Amino acid sequence: MLALVLAIAGAQKARADEGMWQPELLPAIADKLTARGLRMDPAALTDLTEHPMGAIIGLGFCTASFVSPDGLIVTNHHCAYGAIQYASTEDDNLLEKGFVARRLRDEQRGNPTLRVYVTESIEPVTEAVRADLSDALSGKARFDAIEAAKKRLVAKCEADPGHRCDVYTFYGGAEYRLIKQREIRDVRLVYAPPLSIGRYGGDVDNWVWPRHTGDFAFLRAYVAPDGKSRDFDEDNVPYRPDHYLRINPQGVNAEDFVMALGYPGATSRHSLASEVDYAVAVGYPNRLSNVERRLRVIEEQTADRPDAALKYASAVATLNNGRKNFQGMLDGFAAADVPAAKRAVERTVARDPAAAEALERLRSALDDWFQEREARRRYDAVVRQGLLGAARTLYRAAIEAERPDAQRKPGFQERDRSRLEDQQRQLERRLDPSVDQALLALQLEEYASLGADERIDALDAWFGLQGQSPDLSSARATLDQMYARTELADTEQRLAWLQAEPETFRQSEDPFIRLAVALSETDLRLEAEEEAREGDIEQYRAAFMGARLAGSESRPLYDDANNSLRVTYGSVTGYSPRDAVELQPFTTLEGITEKDTGAEPFNAPDLQLRAIARRAGSDYASEDLDSVPVNFLSSLDVTGGNSGSPTLDGEGRLVGLVFDGNYESINADWWFSDRLTRTIHVDIRYMLWVMDVVSEARELMQELGVR
Amino acid sequence: MLALVLAIAGAQKARADEGMWQPELLPAIADKLTARGLRMDPAALTDLTEHPMGAIIGLGFCTASFVSPDGLIVTNHHCAYGAIQYASTEDDNLLEKGFVARRLRDEQRGNPTLRVYVTESIEPVTEAVRADLSDALSGKARFDAIEAAKKRLVAKCEADPGHRCDVYTFYGGAEYRLIKQREIRDVRLVYAPPLSIGRYGGDVDNWVWPRHTGDFAFLRAYVAPDGKSRDFDEDNVPYRPDHYLRINPQGVNAEDFVMALGYPGATSRHSLASEVDYAVAVGYPNRLSNVERRLRVIEEQTADRPDAALKYASAVATLNNGRKNFQGMLDGFAAADVPAAKRAVERTVARDPAAAEALERLRSALDDWFQEREARRRYDAVVRQGLLGAARTLYRAAIEAERPDAQRKPGFQERDRSRLEDQQRQLERRLDPSVDQALLALQLEEYASLGADERIDALDAWFGLQGQSPDLSSARATLDQMYARTELADTEQRLAWLQAEPETFRQSEDPFIRLAVALSETDLRLEAEEEAREGDIEQYRAAFMGARLAGSESRPLYDDANNSLRVTYGSVTGYSPRDAVELQPFTTLEGITEKDTGAEPFNAPDLQLRAIARRAGSDYASEDLDSVPVNFLSSLDVTGGNSGSPTLDGEGRLVGLVFDGNYESINADWWFSDRLTRTIHVDIRYMLWVMDVVSEARELMQELGVR
Fold first, then answer.
1. Least enclosed by CB within 10 Å: which of A449, A661, B598, B608?
2. What pTM was estimated for this model as a whole?
């Protein structure tokens, strides 16, 4: 039916809200921003050390922002989830009840891995990275040269204590930038609404509009009295940021200008049509099926074991999100011919002969990769599973530790030490040996269904897999023995292995350590092959994107998301998901009552339902809606990592937080649709209403400058 | 959560589109009709022998209308389904392909049971029915007196050949009317779109908006050359109706006035709050569960037997419709407190002491009935199942046939003879003995779970059911024997039994006939009890409704639907099913392409999809929509039986056909909501577009006066 499904109209580009813009590109689109309704100087958004950019912070996996001179931070409830969970006990379940710290000393210590990152500078380093690269340098050698250059730049930058630096790749390698961030390590919980507000709608409403989720929470950054970053300490004091956002308690109305600042993770807007073809035909269907099978295994294994179920609750949430995401991708691609649109772009770029050549080489390298990619994914899924993954990481860390720090693989340097430890520690809360065994058996089964020539000898040898369609019974017996004999499920054991020499591993009798050692040579070979491929692909993609950049002088080209700070702008607007259905841009308090069933995830607190019924807190109501707006939709262009991004009005005041996208936005990672791609925000008026009416958080509201 | 669900706003009555109005009441609401946009004299709608009422016809289960001087009839595809199916053969599947008769002689004979009824008069007969009723006459005696009076009136009226007459009960028995209809028995198929247009969306979209169904077809009424009704005959000629509807090919726009004329079957708007309580707590949940179990049994039994599956296809469609309907009822009642609204009405009426007394007696009689109703339903479901139901009908017909015609039970008189025969014949196409046995076993199981004192001795004795929770194994063995030995599955046998004397039944060895005979005495006793109850309930309800009527002088009170001709008016309008969701009143051609998957029920013909893609037939487009409207929504008040009702604009011209309601309208049978109850129409412009672009039915369009 592809010939007849809705074509992606070329005309949709006219409104041009699309784009996760690098801040330095904003002056080039200043006229559009102003025409849309920005009432600040667009140039003011390019300076990271000024307001409002100086107030934007990263949490690593989410975005947040400073909202008071005393380091108060606002972000999504789901971004503060770990902190709230960490502060909860069985007797005092802050997650369920919500939490209000009325004084500084009541603020709760967050999970130790929680960090706040304040971007201090973004420095172009393309020349420095490329200094040792000739066009002739390709494959593994090219990869190594780039990696070495990046490590040098990072090491130099991190000589400044309390900072974290990284070299980010832009435009597939056409540009590199060194980003320096201040790292704050003491982050405390200030406020969280009850779970039944903060996660209202739960997995059911995930990626869904209309939405009624109070997805917000407040944290506070703490530093040593001298202003330096340090770990949690009773004597730490609130951090005083140079800039913080002001609130607009009136919020925005339909069609108003809005923008969001944040750290989008990864998109594939500049990927080729053939990459979409692969994703639709092979990638997503296989991942969807794998996710569904993993979910079934976990469900079966934990059915009568609440303790194990608890350990996998977070994995199940992630898998459920993945399932909805992959299905949404496939639904999205079925509704619009994205590869055709991408091919049109490729044809235009390829008018330049140099670009055409780069494109052809890139396409060919990708095609080669697609031949092996699924086989590699299945092997990786086996060897990264639970205890086996841990054993391999531990052995690799030991091997790397024998080298001077600068020569170690990224991820195994001194700067990565505490993360490695955290990872091993967290396994304790997230792994149950019998569930892990069932999952490893599942992955092994998927791997064993590969052709014999697609499989890996070392793994086959260990599990006794032979020929086409190997018998799995001996593999299952091996698994039984491995899980019966291993001591790696013990956290102290794993932490001890993190200090061990490689030779100790080679002499170990632990079956997982032995398998990790047995796979080590293969793993290194596969890694080298992978890096050689990446070296080539980066070379061709950089050339192709370089040609696109060269052709885009009159019309700036934003890059794919790469975890660096971006700006997206647009307006508050609904959409029509299908014929005769119009979704309005705002939901209201009454919609909560309407959805409520009394059962999770639609179990709003009675206090809240009663307050809605008596129209309490009508000061926060929108005149247009005659009710308090709960969530709203915009045409902003965001992706994972943008969660918690402050939504600002035309004057740069906080009017909400980004927390999700609509179902039709799922495949926007590949192609943005003006007509369908929408971002979901929690409205500042609902945040204030909840703080005031439900939580009576007067002190917090005072700090925010409201009333 | 009831305390917090949306209350039924008293204010919603303000727009007062609600009402399936008896034609004679229209002058009393003339001002409202005119204010709404009627541009005809409302009094013109009261005369059944004038235009437009004279053009409205019934099909028994659906509504239709004359649309040409030569007896051309338009109705829904699903109302003409039996005729289209009858005209189809394995080699020439008109149902799948659609059908266009380009000349009269190509028109296809419809199914022999298809009839057209033209209402000729509605005569008040309350006095005549009540002549022999005193207030003291109650129960069974009252029931019998009413039945006898009705039969006398019907017999007298039907002395005029070619007519069908019935006495209809209005306002629960406060009024009676004799309705006389001309009966036309030769009805032929003129035009049907392909199934994939006429049933587009199938069961999935049933009761759903947005909708894209081409639910229309054309028939023609034929009579003898002398103008009298007769069965199909080659020499019959097209019937020339006194009146026929004219088409408005421009259709209507959003907010325009529309009205529909038709034969709604049954509603419960005047039922008591306690009747809703019972329906919600007992009636619908039990029926829903029963329907689901029957569906499962049929699915299991027909899984590997396409012939049996075909026989039950129509039953499955009916059960699926029932499942959606019962679930929709329960969903609707969960969303709005209908009993509270009904109690408010009851309180108002009960201010009058006589009304209060009638209400109290009615309530008490109903409460008594509720005690036994579910037990009776389960018994009925057993004894009405398939072959057993047929055996009981045949024996009863034999018993009744011994009496003079006027004294026989309605349903068993001479006037019912051909229907009884058709019924027995049709069983051949709809019954498979092993499926029937499984269904009877299921109903027996539900019956056996009743308490011993709720069960019926005669049935228990036959199947060996004893005490509480009886063992069913002997009953199952009995069923095996019965189905192995019976000859009643043979149609000729059943038709022969329709001629047999009661004594022949009593001597039969056929197990189903023997069981029918064994149950006969009980059946007659239960029927008498039921009639006694009905006599009482009718007496009290008539008194209660009489009081309501007396209090409604300033504001006319329409009656519940009772299969008699009604008028409903309102406007073209969308609705909001929930917070932030607005459903527009029109769907468009593009929505068909959008929904299409290529697989049933979303498998529009390629020809159609291509025509949509190239915007063929844009003459039929609405300027507002920039596309051809497919279906539209209105605030009209309809129910089952209204299917096929012509939708007229303010000047009485045809602009569409009623064919369904939205999901939220399902429980409107009990309570109409201005905010949520909507009717779904097929738009005249889509009908013309399909006839023109897909079917090239030029002759038909010419007859309709278009181009």
1. B598
2. 0.89
